[in-house]
Amino acid sequence: MTGAACRRGGTLIVLSGPSGAGKTSVYRALLAAHPEVSFSVSCTTRPPRPGERDGVDYHFLDRDAFQERVAAGDLLEYAEVHGNWYGTLRREVDAPLAEGRDVLLDIDVQGARQVRRVAAGTPLAAAATYVFCAPGSLDDLRRRLRARGTDAAAVIARRLQAAEAELAAWRDYDWLIVNEDGRLAQAVAHLEAILLACRCRTAAYRKEPWTP
Fold first, then answer.
1. I need a labelling partner for 123 at 20 to 30 A (CA). Which of 50, 129, 140, 170 fits?
2. pTM: predicted TM-score of the whole model, two decimal places
């Protein structure tokens, strides 16, 4: 990095929202436009979905391996969601932030609360910003979950029930983007605007960009 960028600390974008809100489509489009942003690959004990790759979409672990990570203190946050465990490796966040790179972390509401709690009183608190991704309507949410074709009816029902509690948490976040059906580009533009705004925060700078 050169110029002002090398004097700026990285921003951690914590992105949450209910299953079916379209977070994956939104952040993948952002990452395609901003390859300099590092994506934090989470750990999970759930089996891969068709087309998912280990180390790219998730670090797929069995339950014993996941618990070993927990015991070793390797995880920034972790939680059980819909019967499976999910967690964030500290190395996926700490290393790029130390290099002044921005990091995008896609986690559920429980995980975001843990990050906020763990980060309190540390430099990570100043680096983090919290973004909630919501669907345009509950009908959109139902339609997307059913259109996936990867989950049984009972799993979809659990996800819809959990979505109500997750949607209620939107005011706990710094930013809100609404991903309406047919308006993905707008949601991506809003997330990009948040990223660019965070890069301009005075708190993000390690020193004045105009000095040697």
1. 170
2. 0.87
Cα distance between residue 38 and residue 10, in whole Å? 10
For 165-181, b where at least 16 C-beta lie within 10 A, e where not — what string?
Answer: ebbebbeebebebbbee
* Host domain of residue 32: 3-40+101-200
Residue 134 lies in a domain: yes
The number of folded domains in the chain is 1
What digits encode the pLDDT tens for the residues 119-149? 999 999 999 999 999 998 888 888 877 776 6
Residue whose token pair is 């990223």: 195
CA distances 92 to 17, 105, 106, 125, Å, are: 21, 9, 12, 16
Q: Which residues contact 29 (CB under 8 A, 6 or more apart)?
A: 184, 185, 188
What are 83-115's pLDDT values in tens digits?
899 999 999 999 999 899 999 999 989 899 999
